[in-house]
């Protein structure tokens, strides 16, 4: 019934005491699904606007006021992920000229590099699922749900996406999602806005050093040779730019260890998740969306939780260097794949990594790298991923056969229960058993565990002053987004980028 506008109009008439014939127009404002068990069954929760006796107003999409900044003061933005792109767009709104430096390729060329990676194991370390225009989020789903509502204006971020080509459904849905098939076009449109306004977006420009005079940044070095100068630099390089942390450490610039998480990707048939979450053998039927889940538990003092759940999606290779095995997930806008996958990860504290914690923040990076190399060695040829059926993993058995998997490079049976570090593998096994108590049938040999999900976030934070958002040692350097340790997804990174731009404007104006 929720898909029937006439039924909605009748119901709204009754609830509002406005006769149907007087209702000129109705508009859906918010939409969510409540699939919890109740005497009402599954509920689709809809919020409508009603117009009676007047013409409907247009949907309120406040278009940003992008200025002509061809001759304005320049600000360097390192990284063209959501943090960098939204920082650049906000700088233009404020009348400043961004120079966006991206190590990878523009989104169309990046698609070709990703196809080569998936089909023939050809990894470009600068253009892949992690690096390139749009950042890691471009080809890993475009989920826009965030809990960072206290940090900034989430609706503004969603409206900017709509302005650049995203569906207006993201303004309505409780868990908005652009989709991997749509997001590249949106990102390209953002780039065109930056350039048309007078800003610059430079690809294959890898920042290899920063320039400092009297504790103030003066610019950056690109590709080992070229200097680009500015007294304000936003560093929004993402969670996989390990070379940036090493560069800062060599210059004795302060870094910090932080909590992060690692684990595996788990993939079920989407039909099974639909039946489980909608409490029906019939699954989701004709009108309900592909079901998702969100699980969390505690095992011996560490959180075990689902991360980046992709209903109707695919598992993809997310490594950035040879000799690594890393997986991530994505969904197209229609979420039509027969598979559902999610990262299931274990919270890692610095004290969990043994002697490497004595090496400080870079020790945590080494630990992350070690797990990825372990997964590579236990995988197959090239980037074939190690995998195990979920029930076998929980029970500590070798999988003789594996169910079908969406991961295009392929999977090979591997005893993840044996070679994963005990503090991760043990907690995952117990966590899966807890999840199965809440969602009966979750632990099944129809599901796969695929290794490893290690890039949920960086284990390193680049410190900054809470008020000025500048690094405490270097004036003019603004650590930003996921890679700096201040965001956890597309929207929170975008908000952080806008905040950094506003802080710079405050120092200049």
Profile the largest sheet.
7 strands, mixed
Outline type = globular
Q: Write down the Rg.
A: 24 Å
Could you tell me how far the N terminus lies from the C terminus, measured between alpha carbons in angstroms? 54 Å
Strand portion? 15-25%
Q: What integer is the average pLDDT?
A: 91
Uncertain stretches: none
The number of helical elements comes to 13
Structural class comes to: alpha/beta
DSSP summary, beta strand count: 21
Lateral strand order in the biggest sheet: 12-13-16-11-19-17-18
Give the helix proportion (percent range): 25-40%
Topology of helices and strands:
Blueprint: H1 5-16, E1 23-34, E2 43-52, E3 74-78, H2 82-93, E4 97-101, H3 107-120, H4 154-163, H5 183-196, E5 200-202, E6 207-213, E7 216-222, E8 226-229, E9 233-235, H6 242-250, E10 256-257, E11 260-269, H7 270-278, E12 296-299, E13 302-310, E14 314-317, E15 327-330, E16 339-348, H8 361-377, E17 385-389, H9 390-395, E18 411-413, H10 416-419, H11 422-438, E19 448-453, E20 460-461, E21 477-479, H12 481-484, H13 490-508
Parallel strand pairs: 3-4, 3-9, 4-5, 9-21, 17-18
Antiparallel strand pairs: 1-2, 6-7, 7-8, 10-20, 11-16, 11-19, 12-13, 13-16, 14-15, 17-19
Helix pairs in contact: 2-5, 2-13
């Amino acid at each position: 019934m929720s898909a029937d506008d006439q039924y909605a109009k009748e119901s709204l008439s009754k609830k509002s005491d406005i006769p149907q014939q007087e209702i000129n127009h109705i508009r859906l404002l918010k939409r969510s699904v409540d699939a919890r068990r109740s005497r009402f069954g599954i509920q689709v929760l809809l919020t409508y606007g009603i117009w009676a006796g007047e013409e409907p107003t247009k949907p309120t999409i406040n278009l940003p006021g992008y200025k002509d900044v061809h001759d304005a003061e320049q600000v360097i933005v390192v990284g063209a992920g959501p943090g960098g792109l939204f920082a650049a767009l906000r700088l233009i709104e404020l009348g400043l000229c961004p120079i966006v430096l991206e190590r990878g390729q523009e989104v169309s060329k990046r698609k070709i590099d990703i196809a080569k990676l998936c089909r023939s194991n050809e990894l470009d370390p600068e253009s892949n699922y992690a690096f390139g225009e749009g950042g890691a989020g471009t080809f890993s789903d475009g989920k826009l749900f965030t809990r960072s509502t206290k940090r900034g204006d989430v609706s503004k971020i969603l409206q900017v996406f709509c302005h650049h080509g995203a569906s207006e459904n993201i303004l309505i849905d409780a868990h908005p999602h652009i989709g991997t098939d749509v997001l590249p076009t949106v990102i390209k449109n953002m780039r065109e806005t930056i350039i048309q306004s007078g800003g610059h977006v430079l690809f294959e420009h890898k920042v290899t050093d920063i320039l400092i005079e009297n504790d103030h940044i003066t610019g950056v070095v690109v590709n080992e040779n070229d200097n680009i100068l500015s007294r304000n630099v936003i560093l929004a390089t993402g969670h996989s730019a390990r070379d940036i942390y090493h560069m800062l450490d060599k210059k004795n610039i302060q870094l910090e260890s932080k909590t992060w998480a690692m684990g595996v990707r788990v993939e079920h048939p989407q039909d099974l998740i639909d039946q489980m979450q909608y409490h029906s053998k019939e699954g989701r039927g004709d009108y309900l969306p592909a079901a998702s889940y969100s699980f969390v538990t505690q095992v011996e003092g560490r959180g075990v939780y689902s991360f980046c759940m992709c209903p109707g999606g695919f598992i993809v290779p997310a490594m950035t260097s040879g000799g690594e095995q890393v997986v991530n997930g994505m969904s197209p806008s229609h979420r039509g794949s027969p598979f559902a996958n999610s990262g299931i990860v274990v919270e890692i504290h610095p004290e969990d990594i043994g002697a490497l914690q004595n090496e400080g923040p870079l020790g945590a990076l080494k630990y992350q790298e070690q797990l990825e190399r372990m997964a590579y060695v236990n995988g197959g040829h090239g980037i074939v991923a190690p995998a195990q059926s979920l029930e076998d993993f929980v029970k500590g058995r070798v999988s003789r056969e594996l169910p079908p998997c969406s991961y295009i490079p392929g999977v090979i049976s591997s005893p993840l229960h044996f070679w994963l570090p005990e503090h991760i593998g043990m907690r995952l096994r117990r966590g899966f058993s807890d999840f199965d108590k809440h969602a009966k049938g979750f632990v099944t040999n129809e599901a796969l565990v695929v290794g490893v999900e290690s890039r949920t976030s960086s284990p390193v934070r680049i410190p900054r002053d809470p008020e000025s958002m500048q690094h405490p040692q270097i004036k003019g350097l603004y650590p930003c987004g996921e890679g700096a340790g201040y965001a956890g997804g597309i929207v929170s990174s975008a908000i952080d980028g806008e905040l950094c731009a506003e802080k710079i404007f405050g120092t200049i104006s």
